[in-house]
Amino acid sequence: MRGRGRLLGLALPMLIAMGCSESTAPASDRQDTLIAAAQEMTLRVGEEKAVPNSVVRLAFGLVVEDSRCPIDAVCVWQGNAMVELGIRAGMGPTQPIRINTTLEPCSTVWNGIRISLLELQPAPRAAEPTKPDAYQVKVRLEPAG
Questions:
Q1: Residue of 96 and 21 predicted with greater confidence
Q2: Rounded to two decimals, what is the model's pTM?
Q3: Domains along the chain?
Q4: Residue 23: helix, strand or coil by DSSP?
Q5: 33: pLDDT confidence band, cut at 50, 70 and 90?
Q6: Cβ burial 98-122 (10 Å sphere, 16+ → b, else e)
Q7: What is the mean pLDDT of residues 9-34?
């Protein structure tokens, strides 16, 4: 009996401390704070922004591929571009996501937020390749429910 009492005496303070480190807000309240309403954001390559009125941060990492039809050419197909974004809540880990301009997926859902790629600028030109740091994306974030 004595050994069990001593073990409980050592474990109880650790259990109490662990309980204090967790948020007291119900899970539904925490989910609601991620994003309340739909909004659009524009980001340049390498830029990270806080989503207004939210704990979410969104970053534009890079253009993975850009095979869109140049604006000064005639193409059989409009082509596609794929971008990589990073998203995180607060100081949490950044989750990379890849979405496309034409092919699926053009949007994805992360923690109850739908992220859709609306536009990638500049449009390509046949005579001059786009510099990697010249790109910017326009995305829409909205509750997925």
A1: 96
A2: 0.75
A3: 27-143 (2.60.98)
A4: coil
A5: low
A6: ebbbeeeeebbebeebbbbbeebee
A7: 38
| pLDDT(53) > 60 | yes
Helix, strand, or coil (residue 128): coil
Neighbouring CB atoms inside 10 A of 32's CB total: 13
pLDDT score of 20 = 31
Distances (CA, A) of 131 to 5, 73, 84, 100: 68, 19, 16, 19
Rounded CA-CA distance 109/87 in Å is: 11
**pLDDT confidence bin for 103, thresholds 50/70/90:** very high
Q: Which of 61, 58, 59 is nearest to 113 (CA)?
A: 58
What is the C-alpha separation between 37 and 42, in angstroms, rounded? 17
Question: At 77, phi and psi to the nearest 5?
Answer: -130, 145
What ranges make up the beta strands (E) of the chain? 39-44, 48-50, 56-66, 81-89, 95-100, 107-110, 113-121, 136-143
Instruction: List CB contacts of 18: < 8 A, sequence separation 6 or more.
Output: none
50 CB-side CA count, 13 A: 6
